[in-house]
């Protein structure tokens, strides 16, 4: 499977598209004004302790206080007393931190919606081959390195780099790396951590001590193990920056990096702009004629499968089974493309055959195998729904590109014109009883104003007779359908 990365870079926004066999699979967007903070290290202050939740709120200088759970506090941080280092099973948050205390934390989840950032005191710093763990003394090896001989070789090399500063985790990309490359990585990470420690002692609280690199560099660092054929960048300045970055940290991608100088925009090469627009739709059409309905809510994402126009050529059971199988491929792609995370409930079309259900589950798990984000499929529930989870580390594409509709305020629907007309008539009656006025003027949207003067004109006339006062209708072109004002004259 061939894969390409396309980088569209402007002064205020960076977009990265991952293409597999000519099809968009992932889209990453970072705007300078709303840049993610996962991986950043802060010197914060404990602003509030919640014993009932075994958590604390930490002020790290953002608009919302960040959240630190007791399980995310590790014993090698300065916030834990010496006796607790010996007895780490103590998990009472009140014994681990105190209000007003300074604490060094790292962001593991960006703020999502109304929730603040999620923190940990288990600081880690990643590089090309290694992940540095300050305060630790051991060496871990990625489980994806399967050769026991290679695991032992790497562990033997890296163990020499462990000292009082910390230990390391050996990443998958380190497989076959030589001692010089590993040594350079370890030295770089130690220098980086030394700078963090220096800033910690020098800076006041509520200060960022370390910031993760920009999207372009993070993507190349994270995709280094993927089978990339080329990386195209449409900005000469970013291209030069990435040449320096790849030559130092990911030399195997250096020759695959190229400057895009085509006449048309880089994202037009694979119809990416239209794909992004389609990723915001609730409905996803399947080639067979069936379709998915995807609804993203605060608590979970639901996916409903329908046969639609697909009637099949044999019998109903085969039609349902084939639609569900096709849907598994589409679901896996949409989860990656939209970056949907958290709890996901899938309502496959009901199947009477246990064999068909197991084959659909196997097809879903196989389709999810190429997802770089961790997923877990729990199987069918008693209600015939499939429960699964996908790790959530950043905002979905919908949350990045969209905001709540001002007309419906997130409900997904608006009141009918007739409903708004009747609300206006009731409001006139209420105001007339409460206040003394000579006449009323109603300001309403074009559709509502037209209906009050047309189909509902008889109801308006009856109201005027009932209250004994004139009601004038004024069209306000900028009003949304539910918006209106009743003014006394």
From TrEMBL:
PROSITE patterns referenced in this protein's UniProt entry, alphabetically: S1 (PS50126)
Pfam families: RNase_E_G (PF10150), RNase_E_G_Thio (PF20833), S1 (PF00575)
Major subcellular site: cytoplasm
GO cellular component, one term: cytoplasm
A single GO BP: rRNA processing
Gene transcribed to yield this protein: rng
Annotated localization: Cytoplasm
Keywords, alphabetical: Cytoplasm, Endonuclease, Hydrolase, Magnesium, Metal-binding, Nuclease, RNA-binding, rRNA processing, rRNA-binding, tRNA processing, tRNA-binding
Domain S1 motif: start-end pairs: 39-128
Entry cofactors: Mg(2+)
InterPro entries reported for this sequence: NA-bd_OB-fold, RNA-bd_AU-1/RNase_E/G, RNase_E/G, RNase_E_G_thioredoxin-like, S1_domain
Protein name stated in the entry: Ribonuclease G
């Amino acid at each position: 499977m061939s894969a390409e990365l396309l980088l569209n870079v402007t002064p205020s926004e960076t977009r990265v598209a991952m293409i597999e066999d000519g099809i968009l699979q992932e889209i990453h967007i970072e705007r300078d004004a709303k840049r993610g903070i996962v991986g950043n290290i802060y010197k914060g202050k404990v602003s509030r302790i919640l014993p009932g939740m075994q958590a604390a709120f930490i002020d790290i200088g953002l608009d919302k206080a960040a959240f630190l759970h007791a399980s995310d506090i590790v014993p090698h941080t300065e916030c834990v007393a010496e006796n607790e280092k010996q007895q780490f099973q103590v998990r009472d948050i009140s014994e681990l931190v105190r209000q007003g205390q300074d604490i060094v934390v790292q962001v593991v989840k960006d703020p999502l919606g109304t929730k603040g950032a999620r923190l940990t005191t288990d600081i880690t710093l990643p590089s090309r081959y290694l992940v540095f763990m300050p305060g630790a003394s051991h060496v871990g090896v990625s489980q994806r390195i399967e050769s026991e001989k290679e695991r032992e070789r790497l562990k033997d090399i890296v163990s020499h780099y462990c000292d009082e500063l910390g230990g390391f985790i050996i990443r998958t990309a380190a497989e076959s790396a030589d001692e010089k490359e590993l040594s350079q990585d370890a030295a770089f990470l130690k220098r980086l951590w030394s700078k963090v420690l220096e800033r910690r002692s020098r800076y006041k609280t509520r200060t960022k001590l370390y910031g993760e690199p920009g999207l372009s560099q993070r993507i190349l660092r994270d995709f280094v193990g993927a089978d990339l054929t080329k990386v195209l960048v449409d900005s000469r300045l970013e291209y030069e920056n990435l040449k320096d970055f790849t030559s130092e940290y990911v030399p195997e991608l250096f020759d695959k990096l190229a400057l895009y100088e085509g006449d048309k925009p880089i994202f037009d090469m694979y119809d990416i702009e239209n794909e992004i627009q389609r990723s915001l739709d609730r409905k996803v059409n399947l080639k067979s004629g069936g379709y998915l309905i995807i609804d993203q809510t605060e608590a979970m994402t639901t996916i409903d499968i329908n046969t639609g126009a697909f009637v099949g050529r044999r019998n109903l059971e085969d039609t349902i089974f084939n639609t569900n199988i096709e849907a598994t491929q589409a679901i896996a792609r949409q989860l990656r493309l939209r970056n949907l995370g958290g709890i996901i409930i899938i309502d496959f079309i009901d199947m009477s055959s246990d064999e068909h259900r197991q084959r659909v589950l196997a097809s879903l798990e196989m389709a999810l195998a190429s997802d770089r984000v961790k997923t877990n499929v729990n199987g069918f529930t008693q209600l015939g729904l499939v429960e699964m989870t996908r790790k959530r580390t950043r905002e979905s594409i919908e949350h990045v590109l969209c905001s709540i509709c001002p007309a419906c305020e997130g409900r997904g629907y608006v009141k009918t014109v007739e409903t708004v007309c009747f609300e206006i008539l009731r409001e006139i009656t209420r105001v007339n009883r409460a206040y003394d006025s000579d006449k009323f003027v109603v300001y309403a949207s074009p559709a509502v104003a037209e209906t009050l003067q047309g189909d509902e004109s008889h109801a308006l006339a009856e109201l005027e007779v009932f209250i004994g006062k004139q009601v004038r209708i004024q069209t306000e072109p900028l009003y949304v359908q539910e918006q209106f004002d009743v003014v006394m004259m």
